[in-house]
Amino acid sequence: MAEYKGCTGSSGEPRKLIGEILLQKGRIDEEQLNRAISAQKQTPGMLIGQLMVYLGYAQVRDVLEAHAEQLGIPIVDLDKEEIEEGLEKTIPRSASLRYQAIAIRRQGNRLTVAMADPSNIFAFDDIRLITGCEIDPVLADPKQIADKLASSEGRRGEDELDQALRALDGSPSDPPEVGYLQKVPSGEEPRRERAPTAMKPDEGPIIRVVNVIIEQAIKDRATNIAVEPDSRGVRVRYRIDGVLYEVMHVPKYVHAPLVSRLKIMADCNIAERKLLQQGTIGGIKFEGRDYVLKANFSPSIWGEVARLAVRPSGEAIATFESIGMLAQVVENLQRPLASEGLVICFSNNLLTAKQLLYAATASTVNVQTSVMTIEDELDAKMAGAEQVRVNPKAGMTITSLLRHAQSIDVDVVMVSNIPDGDSARQLVQFPNRRIFAGMAARTSDEVLFTLIRGYEVEPLLLFARLSALVGCKQVRRLCSKCTVEQSVSASQLKEIGLPVSGREELRVKFPGERCDQCRSTGYFGQIGIFEFVLNDPELADRLVNFLDLGPEKRREAISEATVCSFAEDALDKLLSGQTSLEEVIPLLR
């Protein structure tokens, strides 16, 4: 196996550029290279090799060979390669999708991994940490990797959907494909499926297709369903435990009646296809439980996209314990929650931030406290609280509702999102109240930077009112039935930013032999990783000239006031066997 050369060639000199290699081999001429370089400046993010193929200057194989020569590693043809049985589970599926990598051979502690981009050092190191093996990378066609990953996923709900599609097609001898995108030979047009008769959204077969898609999503614990048309048909994807999976692909002619059926169920206008529409699908019952689907429809170049958020009806309000917050952090959080001031709950996902807000607000609800919530969407009903939904058409904006809250007798005000500077400045001037607000941000530093620089909030006012910053990032929880335990050196954990000290080796859990409970993903459910920063006079003094400080100085000042960091909480969840390295590594980047 060839040695991995990284960013240098075998002699340690800087490696050649792919364009130079193609030019030297006579695959392109100098004019084509210059055109591709000019085109790359107009399309940032697109690699020169991709542009060569896109412009028709070079074949995929030519670019692969040049890339392999550049890196000093071999190429593998996955269509001809026989992958060892069981190796597809060595690299967790989410990591394979993220890095476009698939294990193909194993010999002792050395794992041969086909990668679309072996020069990605982060991917190389992460796969080594996740698998515990030394990695021998080989280069493969990204399309072949995608095809292999697609074929290994399996087909959910295939039998029922196949029967419904047969009924639509009226051709049991040649049913439309259910599963992943059909492979189309190079140079050929995708097959255009045609319905034998015009279909209506209220006909039996299309109703059955919709029912199967929704029922299968609930069975698989999906939180979101996406129905997305493309040039060849309609793909259906589920988001399960925060990860998107493509679960089926239906013929193009099913698209219009499928979306129309969903619009009818959501009480939307089926004749309007060029505007954004929202609606709610209620009355969904499955295995004795009621569900509500919040539907969004948006136009695209291939037709309307339908997105459905799946929510159980009457779902209980989350508590700090139920979302995974450590008892010590919950205890430390009680003081700012019980005191006048501003507590900001943040996450890279607003839905996660709102879940944290609900837990904080619900903990204050009692007979002696008056609670008001101001929300973009009422995601859950909170007993004992006055919940108000923002309605700009009726003049009920966040700023107007905050002015209303100032004039009434209310102890706690929860704002689901701080959308602009007006709302932010109004919050920090809110007198004698406990204020809980949500924000979309990745770190505490980003929250403060957005408020002070983006929303132009005066730092003195902000730190005078701020009580605490509470952040949450969700990771997948390991399946309880199919985990395995392995040893990891402390130095490996330190490499990814985990605060390990005093131990040479630690035992952590990994997804093992996948089971039916987790549907062969290795994970079941999600858990929160938290950060808690408690404001104090020293922090305010250090950050009063916030914009004059560099990023390192800001982070240093914030870390001194941090009760619990994302890295510390992630290490605790990792060592307690609740999540895996695969989930923790991206969180700390």
Q: How many β strands by DSSP?
A: 19
Low-confidence stretches: 1-11, 171-199
CATH topology (fold) name of the largest domain: Rossmann fold
Whole-number total of structural domains: 3
Strand content: 15-25%
Oligomeric form of this entry?
A: single chain
Strand order of the largest sheet: 12-11-13-14-10-15-18-19
Query: Structural class of the helix and strand makeup?
Result: alpha/beta
Task: Summarize the biggest pleated sheet.
Answer: 8 strands, mixed
CATH class of the largest domain: Alpha Beta
Contiguous helical run count? 21
How large is the radius of gyration? 27 Å
Inertia-based shape? globular
What helical percentage do the residues reach? 25-40%
List the SSEs and their pairings.
Layout (H helix, E strand, L loop, with lengths): L17 H7 L5 H13 L5 H7 L5 H12 L21 H7 L1 E7 L2 E6 L5 H11 L2 E6 L2 H12 L4 H12 L34 H16 L2 E8 L4 E7 L2 E8 L4 H11 L11 E10 L2 E10 L6 E8 L14 H12 L2 E7 L2 H13 L8 E5 L9 E5 L8 H9 L5 E4 L5 H8 L5 E7 L3 H11 L4 H7 E13 L4 E7 H6 L9 E7 L11 E12 L2 H7 L7 H10 L1 E3 L1 H10 L5 H7 L2
Parallel strand pairs: 2-3, 10-14, 10-15, 11-12, 11-13, 13-14
Antiparallel strand pairs: 1-2, 4-5, 4-9, 5-6, 7-8, 8-9, 15-18, 16-17, 18-19
Report on this model:
- By secondary structure, this protein is α/β, with parallel strands linked by helices.
- It folds into 3 domains: about 130 residues, GMP Synthetase, Chain A, domain 3; about 160 residues, Beta-Lactamase (2-Layer Sandwich), CATH 3.30.450.90; about 190 residues, P-loop containing nucleotide triphosphate hydrolases (Rossmann fold, 3-Layer(aba) Sandwich), CATH 3.40.50.
- Helix content is about 35%, strand content about 25%.
- The two termini are about 30 Å apart.
- About 35% of the residues are buried.
